[in-house]
Write a structure and sequence with these properties.
Blueprint (H helix, E strand, L loop, with lengths): L1 H19 L15 E21 L4 E24 L3 E24 L4 E23 L12 E20 L2 E25 L5 E17 L8 E17 L1
Antiparallel strand pairs: 1-2, 1-8, 2-3, 3-4, 4-5, 5-6, 6-7, 7-8
Length: about 240
């Protein structure tokens, strides 16, 4: 499904480029274009929801843990790449954010020892987010008289890591020190927005994006029955203000 979406966007971009390349006139005083070098700064707010499920086998027992985090982040992102005649831009993205939210944890242990379970909830936990990705933006409307002129669609896959700081705990025991929990996800972000020209090469705009992610991994030694399975998932909604060249 993802390959079909990317292919459709690329075909749309090449089709629009073929139409616009013969009609653009750089001698026109009203001519604007993202062309050649591409640079964009994006800043805004993100609502993040993270989940991590872990199954491990300590001391011939089965321990299941489910961790959830939800909160708001202030987020900044730099994009650097190249543009083709105001039709498409390909870029590398580097982003980071900081915010706070609510962390929840549930643990259940079964096996040869006494059955135990517990839960933990805490507000005001810090989240540090780091993002690395490669993406593209496509401008399907080239008619300057159209109200949709400047509208763009974007897609960006990559890696996101959220580091959440929480109070150290185990079942019903709570300690004074703090620890960090990492949520790592391979993500794909879908974006829609609109740019408004403020000079011949620079534009100011806004964008709404939706990000979905997931990652699974296993660690430990299987023949010693120490395998630990970890499953991560996430989704985010962001509203950004941007300036682009």
């Amino acid at each position: 499904m993802m390959k079909k979406i990317i292919s459709a966007l690329l075909l749309s971009a090449f089709y629009v480029f073929a139409q616009s390349s013969s009609n653009s006139n750089e001698n026109d005083e009203y001519y604007h274009a993202h062309k050649g070098f591409y640079f964009s700064v994006n800043t805004g707010i993100v609502l993040a929801n993270l989940s991590q499920k872990t199954t491990s086998f300590p001391d011939k027992n089965v321990e299941k843990e489910k961790e959830n985090y939800s909160g708001y982040l202030g987020y900044d992102e730099f994009r650097l790449g190249g543009s083709i005649a105001n039709v498409a831009s390909i870029y590398g993205a580097l982003g980071w954010g900081y915010g706070s939210g609510r962390y929840e944890d549930e643990i259940e242990r079964t096996g040869t020892q006494l059955h135990r379970e517990g839960s933990f909830e805490e507000d005001g936990d810090d989240d540090f987010r780091f993002l690395l990705g490669i993406g593209g933006e496509f401008y399907p409307f080239q008619d300057k008289e159209s109200p949709f002129y400047g509208l763009f669609l974007g897609i960006c896959p990559g890696l996101i890591i959220d580091i959440v700081t929480i109070t150290d705990h185990y079942y019903n025991s709570i300690y004074d020190n703090t620890i960090t929990v990492s949520f790592a996800n391979i993500f794909c972000r879908f974006e829609i927005g609109k740019d408004f020209w403020i000079s011949r090469r620079w534009s100011l705009g806004f964008a709404l994006n939706y990000t979905i992610g997931g990652l699974e991994e296993e660690t430990g030694v299987e023949y010693l029955n120490e395998i630990e399975h970890e499953s991560n998932s996430s989704y985010s909604i962001g509203l950004m203000i941007r300036i682009s060249h």
